[in-house]
TrEMBL record:
Coiled coil: none annotated. Keywords: Hydrolase. It comes from Paenibacillus oleatilyticus. This is Alpha/beta hydrolase. GO terms for molecular function: hydrolase activity. It comes from the Bacteria. Belongs to the esterase D family.
Amino acid sequence: MTFKPNEQSEVTLKDLARSKIEIPWAETWTMKSRDHRRRYQILVAKPPEAPPPAGFPVIYLLDANSVFGTMVEAVRLQSRRPDKTGIVPAVIVGIGYPVDGPFAPERFYDLTPAPTIDYLNRSDSMPLPEQGGAAHFLKFIEEELKPQIEGEFPVDRSRQTIFGHSLGGLFVLYALFAKPHAFQSYIAGSPSLHWNEPFLLEAEREFARGLQPAASRIELLLGVGELEKTHVSRNCDRALALSERLTALSGRGLDVEYKEFEGEGHVSVLPVLISRALRLALRPKP
């Protein structure tokens, strides 16, 4: 059917053919962990071009229900001209949950290394779900998810990044302290350092005592929104202090960057944090 510019028609938008929009490059499946029997929605986006000889860099993304599309689009657009943007194509592996919303209650268990000692309720005043399963979750990533990804997609194991925000940022730091060479780049956005501070401080001390240089350096980006500085948790101050302490480990192979994003809050910081993280994790090899 052809429409002329001035032709009146009773055809409405409801009459036009429609289809759902899909994320380019992406596929998804459900995966159940052997250890603690939890179900995850795995989302993977692979660039369409041929991989480099060593494979594509890979980013493991936490809370994928909320930010997978944002990161995939950022990589898809910015990796078209690595010579201009400083970002090469990469495989994005999102770890989410089989729910419709951006977050699932199960994240409180998976992303926290120990139960909170100061907080009884969530920000919406509802009781907190079960917590303290980060060790199980990290084991799932290392022993179940990574082998499957590496068996199905051409990824470079020497260029692995983990990205998390809020409780996900807390988990990223836990992973760094517990298994520092599992990834080469750690992106901790607005990390919930207040959750169980004594536990994390002890984990940091053990990490600092045991860190040994490896073939490649470890990179950590701590990113927060400027508007978070007034929050009662004082996590901006805590993140800055953490970056200063960890910078002392540069001689043993750890590079630390602290970045405060002007005019951004706890949630609005995510797009700019993602863009900054990509420049760290996906810069072209020299």
